[in-house]
Amino acid sequence: MLALLGVLAGVPRAATAQEAIFLIRHAERAEGDDPPITEAGRARAQQWADMLGGVGLAKVFTTEARRTRETGSIIAEALRIETEALPTGDNRALLDVIEWDHEDDRVLIVGHTETIPDLLSALGAFDLVEMPKDDFARLFVVMPGDSEPVILDMRMP
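and the corresponding structure tokens:
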């Protein structure tokens, strides 16, 4: 997978949309209403930072939930880029911000099991994506194109 991410660093810019949109689920979390991520979650977020370090991310988007903000912050701090938290479940607002304010960028979205499938659908994924509650190791890369987007579904080892 690291080799594939290296190839993505050389993908030419799409004329009509973002270069690439990366989507991950927040890292492992503790229990509770608005739980933090666990030690294992912090380690995973650092692994994401290491993996995504060479793809040229411009910004990390999270929801307002503590677990996405913590995951995104670890990644953003390691990559020295900004984060922005948007309301959970307002996928249209998130996609509008990305489309209008980051049309030439590569961005990362840190989401949830219930938001990632809807985001992927809105970005052109025609197959239903299931996100098991115990799966924290998936990375989706959406590369918009002139017709249909290219959507990669990968796993962290």
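(Above: one complete record from the training split.) The two ends are 8 Å apart (CA to CA).
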